[in-house]
Amino acid sequence: MTYVVTDACIRCKYMDCVEVCPVDCFYEGENMLVINPNECIDCGVCEPECPAEAILPDTESGLEQWMELNSKFSAEWPNITTKGDAPDDADDHKGEEGKYEKYFSAEPGAGD
Ligand code: SF4
Ligand code: SF4
């Protein structure tokens, strides 16, 4: 079992999650983060920290697309362990529908 970042994270990137993860298993893309499912110890502490409610346990249904995305891109993107500055327009995109189709980028973020 693992926790999964969904498209609710796209263009939010508040990064409150990375500070609390005891095993540093978040990875940074250009405009969202993902969790490495092989490294996540399923502690659940990141879930309530995410203001966008983007983090869910994989026991919830309908997460297959995001499971695949987290698995694929956590192997390609750099590790991120320190909270950075959220984009200026992060709040404008909170709760927006269809963010994957509109904004997803496969490009890596800067990491740390
Ligand atoms: S706190 Fe939530 S929205 Fe922000 S980077 Fe982490 S998973 Fe994404
Ligand atoms: S559930 Fe725990 S180990 Fe997994 S990503 Fe969240 S904080 Fe890290």
From TrEMBL:
Taxonomy, superkingdom: Bacteria
PROSITE patterns: 4FE4S_FER_1, 4FE4S_FER_2
Domain 4Fe-4S ferredoxin-type: 1-30, 31-60
Pfam family name, one: Fer4
Gene3D superfamilies: 3.30.70.20
Compositionally biased intervals (Basic and acidic residues): 91-104
Region (Disordered): 77-112
Cofactor: [3Fe-4S] cluster; [4Fe-4S] cluster
InterPro entries, per the entry: 4Fe4S_Fe-S-bd (IPR017896), 4Fe4S_Fe_S_CS (IPR017900), 7Fe_ferredoxin (IPR000813), Fd_C (IPR022569), FdxA (IPR054829), RnfB_subfamily (IPR050294)
Membrane spanning stretches: none
A GO MF label: electron transfer activity
Keyword line: 3Fe-4S, 4Fe-4S, Electron transport, Iron, Iron-sulfur, Metal-binding, Repeat, Transport
Function as written in the Swiss-Prot or TrEMBL entry: Ferredoxins are iron-sulfur proteins that transfer electrons in a wide variety of metabolic reactions.
PANTHER family linked to this entry: FERREDOXIN (PTHR42859:SF2), OXIDOREDUCTASE (PTHR42859)
Name the UniProt record assigns to this protein: Ferredoxin
Native source species: Sphingobium phenoxybenzoativorans
Taxonomic lineage from the root: Bacteria, Pseudomonadati, Pseudomonadota, Alphaproteobacteria, Sphingomonadales
